[in-house]
Amino acid sequence: MIDNLKRFGWSNWSLVVQLTVTRILLIAVTVIGITWVSLRREQANFQAELENQADLALNVLEESSANALYQLDADSIEEIVLEFEDTGFVVKIYDENGRLIAETQHDNPLRFSLETDAFAMRVLQEDSTVYDWQSEQLVAAKPVRIGRVPVGVASVVFSTAPLDAKIADVQRSGVEVALLAMLLGAIVSIVLSRTITVPLTDLAKATEHIAQGNWSHQVPVHGSAELKKVGTSFNAMVGQLRQREAQIVKTTGDLAVEVEERKRAEEAARNANQLKSNFLANMSHELRTPLNAIIGFSDVMLLGMGSDPLTSKQNDQVTRIRDNSSRLLTLINDILDISRIESGRMELVNRPVDVRKLVQNITNQMQSLANEKKLEFAASVDDSLPPSIVGDEKRLEQIVVNLLSNAFKFTKAGSVILKVTCENQMWQLTVRDTGIGIPPHAQETIFEPFRQVDGSSTREYGGVGLGLAITHELVRLMNGQIQLESKRGEGSTFTITLPLISVEQSVKSAG
Amino acid sequence: MLDVNNPKSWRVLIVDDEADNLNLVGIVMEFHGAEVFKAGDGLEGLEKARDMRPNLILMDLSMPQMDGWTFLAELRGEDDLARIPVIALTAHAMDGDRERVIDAGFDGYISKPLQIATLVQDIERQLYY
Questions:
Q1: Which of A138, A422, A423, B113, CA to CA, is 20 to 30 A from A310?
Q2: Mean pLDDT for chain A overall
Q3: Interface ipTM
Q4: Does the beta-carbon distance from A292 to B94 stay under 8 Å?
Q5: How far apart are alpha carbons A380 and A419 in whole angstroms?
């Protein structure tokens, strides 16, 4: 049923049509039902009435014909039958054997039929009045008795035409009433439905208005109590939404202002950063220029390029000037590096690097330090490392020199070992020493700028703790990792793992 | 003629606005037997180059009047001077500076602070390179 309705597109019909159709169907079913019931009752009444008339006629007929039948007096029977000639119904008289003797509607009513009539026989057998309703007539008959002895059968035939006409009348008026009721019902239904649908349509329109941002639109409150409630609730909801929207607009405005302020702050920070970078670059240049002269002229004196040779005491003093200014230069370079890293301006210059040659250069540089402190110093490069790989040679050198400088600085006796190995598309730089080691708590912070293990070590070993921070950042820029293993008193091992980029790979990716 | 391996054959024009640097490089060059000419900026350097016909120029980059870049362009524009090798000596030791210098047409690049002990070898290496 529901599926059929669906197929019919029921749910697509407007509410008015749905309600009206439903009501008309209900009214139709009711009126047809009532009409049918009353028709049945009318019909039963008419039938009973006709049967009563038949009874009366049969009684009269029985009374008048009993003796004539008993005596088989044809003349009397004819007389009796003729008396019923103008009554509008047919009268028939049968003998005790069910044979038709006479009937009206003939000039000569007498028949004396030799054949037994089945209907008359049935009446004689049942021995009571029998009504036989046929399509257009009612045939009623009863036995005629003298005392308890049947002497014949009296029968009347009434036409049902008047009855049918009456029934048709009732049917017609029933249909008229039904049609009228359906029409009235439809009108009432449409009017009633509109009291629902009009507010609903208003509500739908209001929703559209609000969807378009017309917040001031109000729904007219009318219709049934429920619909009024819906309208009132809707208006209240719109009111709240309007308030909230206003709030959102205000918040958005505030946010925009805040974003603007932050942008300005960021811009200011960027400018400040740029100023800082420029300042540092200038300061570095300005510090280097006099240092260049100090170191340069110290060298000139030490190398005997000046006019007079130095005494050993002078030589010693100029050496101190030379060494201290070198330290100052290293410090300036480190500060410049760390500020470049922190402002994101450190850029790598990647080119083919011959790592073996690089290690040889570094070893040559550092050998004098090892000799001074009487430390064993060895460097090795694994055979599997390609002759040339891609990297920033200057920064790789800086990393290794930083690690080796630290190793020499913090090792009083034993050895410093530099190893370069290669495996699985990675290569590793390992610096191992037998120095004082780094306690566990310091291992976490040792790569942060301005850290040394404790304040006293600054005094003892010098330096401000920028080397490892720079190393760490450079390794990070190279997409590598730095690891530290150390035990206090037994030494430290720094391992740097870097992605191995062969020259061929680099050419391929570039071309 | 310039004999790279023999500094005694060098006629070196040094251009630098810092008098101390000028003197320092001069002392080192003279120590190795080179003939030395000095200029305090690019303009003066061009005049000295035309007058003295040096066979090697050591050139600071940031200078008043005429800087090292303009000096190089002017020098390369004069037929008589265009072939003189010019090496930049600069305190701008930033990333990418070497590439910019070589791309501009300098024959070499040595960053300050200078390594006095190896300065001559450094210059020779730049000339070979």
A1: B113
A2: 83
A3: 0.88
A4: no
A5: 5
